[in-house]
Model the fold of this input.
Amino acid sequence: MSKNAIKTLSPVSLPSLPYADNALDPIISANTIGFHYGKHHKGYVDNLNKLTAETEFAEMTLEKIIAGTVGKADKTAIFNNAAQVWNHTFYWHSLRPKGGGQPPDVLKKMIETSFGTVDACRKEWAAAAMAQFGSGWAWLVLDGDKLKVVKTGNADSPLSLGVKPLLTVDVWEHAYYLDYQNRRAEYVNAVLDKLINWSFAAENLV
Ligand code: MN
Done:
């Protein structure tokens, strides 16, 4: 194989889902996962690889591509696709079958220090998800030694804000429209109550 042929190979691949496509049913249906993972997430991967082929970004890690394109007007398309690949992989891991409930002790203590109670954290998070106008993401992040809720628009990620993402909820319409139509609050509350993967957040603390 020639060097050029190797260079055009896709550097970024679509990661496997951490569960079966029907594992989040009925909160998130296999139909939604089929489009969201199989079409949207895959589409960002495919677009990114097309956009970066034969460029300085072709052999970079996803994180390096994101850091190298954020805020650059002539690199918006690459940033958007790279950040959406990262955000979606992070989102799938932020959910799990039979999630929700109480966070592991270490995380629970931090939540109580930052928000008062787990329920107060959950309420602030749901409110942020509802307040995001149009497409975007609602995140639980670690900022210094405090936990915070932040929302980002479109493909934007807290990685660029200098804070550590712990969990995210996708509030693009494609995340919930097939199952909930316009009822974003119903989707967000169901995800936070029944799917959110507190253990993944605890893993991200270290
Ligand atoms: Mn999405």
